[in-house]
Amino acid sequence: MLTTSQVKIRHRKEGFFMPQMMPEYKTTPVIHRYNDGAPVLSARDIPYPADCVFNAGVVKYKGKYVMIFRNDYSPIHGHGFRGCNLGIAFSDDGKKWSVRKKPFLTAEDMGDPEITRVYDPRLTVLGGRVYLCFAVDTKHGLRGGIAVTEDFENIEVLSMTVPDNRNMVLFPEKIHDRYVRLERPFPVYSRGGKDRFDIWMSFSPDLRYWGDSELVLTVEDVPFANDKIGPGAPPIKTKYGWLTLFHAVQRDESRGKNGWDDKWTKCYCAGIMLLDPEDPGKVIGLSKFPLIAPETGWEAEKGFRTNVIFPGGMILEDDGEVKIYYGASDTVECLATASVDDLIALCKPPCS
Ligand code: BMA
User: Fold this and answer.
1) Residue 286 neighbours by CB distance under 10 Å
2) Ligand 1 centre and the CA of 45: distance in Å?
3) What is the pLDDT of residues 242-259, one digit of tens each?
């Protein structure tokens, strides 16, 4: 007999769709770009080799803003970069940043010769400590890691996924006595051999052992995605539910060369949804339109891969302002703000 106590079955759209010409999307008007969209951090702020500084995680911790960012350096023309590490910066206002003189974490620091690259950090404050979720490339697949620090000097890795899973973000508190994370596995075989990647959730009693995994949001649920979706910043708690950013990718084969990359046919937008406060695997609200779409010169014209908005940090201030940190064009880090009430109002029930 099949019992389903561990498995939630929800009604979902099914089927694959073909990549097609995608419409030009606009940023939702509730969003204000800080300093007209100019970067809050870029390679010229970094006191060691740096070419692209982006996809940062940001938290407020002990009275300071803390940013851990990805730094790609030493470009191979049109084919990515020879090096990548994570840097750290501190700020009093979330806008002007001082960068530590040395990288925060490198692949070599991981002490595992399998690991070739560490990237895409996300930060969560939980129980007075700071948790870092990050991705690594290894010689045998992509993995997601969770580490913890209290002083940004010593760091302990608590768990690593099997390949291929990444884009993990940790909720800032336990829910029903379990830790909760969003994640994005790569089920190539079962999704027709194409990019069709969705957002999942897993639970843990101790941050080491993860299970009871469930599907949260599929690429077919998002009208402005035809390729893949993935978690953005760690969710923030509101009285209506967990306000959650994600990235949504459209592919349009008619797009040719963009930026420095040889051929780049994708466009990444930021999306927003609301998850049930008690049952966070349930989407109770979703905006059908991109929250942030690439528009400014930094987002749509300059840089390594143009048309990429990659949100990784979200902070709710006491006055209701939400700061959203996002990587632009895989090249610089930018900041946008909105009111929490406006963001919640965008999240309509999924079937409406
Ligand atoms: C994804 C990740 C991100 C990156 C994005 C766009 O697969 O590698 O780090 O921002 O592609 O290039």
Assistant:
1) 23
2) 22
3) 999 999 999 887 776 677
8 A C-beta contact, residue 215 and residue 191: no
Please tell me the distance from the alpha carbon of residue 231 to that of residue 70, in angstroms, as a whole number.
17
CB 171 within 8 A of CB 280: yes
209 burial via Cβ count (<10 Å: 0-12, 13-18, 19+):
exposed
Tell me the three state secondary structure of residue 116.
strand
Decide whether any atom of ligand 1 lies within 6 Å of the 308 Cβ. yes
SS3 34: helix
pTM: 0.94
**Ligand 1 pocket check for 330: Cβ under 6 Å:** yes
Is residue 338 within 8 Å of residue 331, measured between CB atoms?
no
- Residue 341: which H helix or E strand, with range? helix 340-346
pLDDT at 352: 60
* Residue 65 token pair: 């803003």
DSSP codes of every residue in 90-113:
EESSSSS-EE-SS-SB-TGGGT-T
